[in-house]
């Protein structure tokens, strides 16, 4: 109990000095205000300089990217042209080959039809069949 009374007594004597320390005002002078203004100006100038550098860097990158995209599109057009040429060539060759390979068969069929027509002159039943088929 005695120690409690002593600690309270010490606290009562020290309390006013502690309150004065907390109340002490820090003076803000014109020099401080000027210093803050100069700092804000420096920060603003650094910000604008940084923005201009970043913009110039991105402009360079933009032009490089545009050039790369142009190269890519030119490459794609070349690939499309090659593919189209190949497809036209394949279809052209297929039609030409078909026509070329069917020509001898048509001549052979024509010979067979002529032979049947000659034979039909002597066979009335065969003549009737060829007439019905539209070959006579």
Description:
This protein is mainly α and 136 residues long. It has one domain. 90% of the residues lie in helices and 0% in strands. The protein is built from three helices and no strands. α2 (30-120) runs antiparallel to α3.
The class by helix and strand makeup works out as: mainly alpha
The strand count comes to: 0
How much β-strand is present in the residues? under 5%
Estimated radius of gyration? 53 Å
Intertermini distance: 144 Å
Count of distinct structural domains: 1
Low-confidence spans = none
Q: What gross morphology would you assign?
A: rod-shaped
Q: Count up the helices.
A: 3
The averaged pLDDT comes out at 84
Q: What characterizes the major β-sheet?
A: none
- Helix content percent band: over 70%
The helix/strand series, from N terminus to C terminus, equals HHH
Short characterization:
By secondary structure, the protein is mainly α.
Provide tags for this entry.
136 residues, mainly alpha, 3 helices, 90% helix
